[in-house]
């Protein structure tokens, strides 16, 4: 019965930061103390009591609450001085995804674990320090007047496990909850297409691809149906769509031809793009990529998707494109959570920040990564949704918060008179994209118009691989990635459907 007592205890009182109790995440509804929605706008007396982390006392370390465990949030947490602050991270996933290599996991070039880094390894205090936590949950609302965030645990649909509402008081809040795939309101996208943003998406793509390969081998399946099952359609010709198409064509040329010889002539990749593919790259690089992809068997279609049905995509001109696997990669936009926040916004709906990445008009709230952008009043452009932006913002903000903490401004409302120092300045380092068959594009210019190095081919591919191998977050994952590349080269990709 000890576990039952623990659950009741957690459900009825605040979490004591000195006695960790992870059972908070597994509290069944029947034992939950309060389930009603909080009054986010109202006075604190109207807010129903929840379990939660209470405000820190002046003699305790101030608490930074980080929403999100992506590029921005993880880089920030890595840089936070945990002698000054406690850190509480809230995120629906307990790891960071090294997104530039995610496409390679869809076809088995890399294993899923090679691109996922557990948060406890990025900021060890989260696993060890008595006042630092990770909560597998999503944030539902922010009460900036009372310095509180309201959260709900993730249960992944597990039976007999109802999500639990809880709240966390913050001294400093960093919103780094990223963006979501844009569907432009096109019907059927969410229901039928797979996005490529999380490891779970890559797993879904790999299982579907292998399922379709095996189904098409079954006796009695008509040719027309085989063609449909093995038609992989990618919508969106940005770097992610192109890299995924390149990976697929490599998989087909090497692995499908050897191991699914019966159906090798039926499998095809089509990449649909409304404008030019890789529009952010130099013209010569784009032309090179187009030629290479076509040579590898990728069919490039210029078109706008109007409707998505369960087995076919319908374009604006009425063309119907049957598919067995549909991957959607047409850019990102603000998530419903970001839309719901009553904070200043940019034109595109991101959280608006000033030159120090603070959210003006509220105290102690910062925002970084894909969910934020400079406000028009700063005179700076909204930065692209890129890992290199998110990562550098995370590093900058960690340094800024450490400085504030050292100067004694770590607690809520304590930083008003503190000199903030240099503003955040972004310098673009260039872009890279692999296009399959040991070829890649490297564009080291700061903008499309600027002068600088841009090259394509095998050397670029070598640069691409070396650059990402050095950028992978930990030595452990660097080792995994190197071993995966070596085994794929020697033995081919893993085609077991697990
Ligand atoms: C396949 C792919 C390839 C890419 N390749 C490149 C590349 O080569 N180079 C490059 O510069 N960029 C690349 N990008 C873009 C880059 O990954 C993003 O710009 C970057 O991830 C943004 O970082 P972020 O921390 O803002 O958001 P994310 O990394 O998306 O992280 C957001 C985090 O917030 C969490 N979250 C969401 N909602 C909530 C909530 N309500 N409460 C709490 N937490 C929440 C999410 O679970 C996640 O942990 C790629 C993206 C993809 C998808």
UniProtKB/TrEMBL annotation:
Cofactor names from the entry are: FAD
Catalytic function, reaction form? a ubiquinone + NADH + H(+) = a ubiquinol + NAD(+); a quinone + NADH + H(+) = a quinol + NAD(+)
Pfam families for this protein = NDH2_C, Pyr_redox_2
In its UniProt record, a GO molecular function of this protein is:
oxidoreductase activity
* Keyword Oxidoreductase annotated: yes
Q: Which residue ranges are recorded for the region named Disordered?
A: 37-56
Which positions fall inside the External alternative NADH-ubiquinone oxidoreductase-like C-terminal domain?
428-494
Topology in the membrane? Peripheral membrane protein
Q: Where in the cell is it found?
A: Mitochondrion inner membrane
Arranged from A to Z, the UniProt key words for this protein are: FAD, Flavoprotein, Membrane, Mitochondrion, Mitochondrion inner membrane, NAD, NADP, Oxidoreductase, Peroxisome, Transit peptide
Q: What class of enzyme is it?
A: oxidoreductase
Q: What is its EC number?
A: 1.6.5.9
Briefly, what is this protein's role?
Alternative NADH-ubiquinone oxidoreductase which catalyzes the oxidation of mitochondrial NADH does not translocate protons across the inner mitochondrial membrane.
What is the protein's name according to its record?
NADH:ubiquinone reductase (non-electrogenic)
Origin organism is: Nelumbo nucifera (Sacred lotus)
Q: Which gene encodes it?
A: LOC104594915
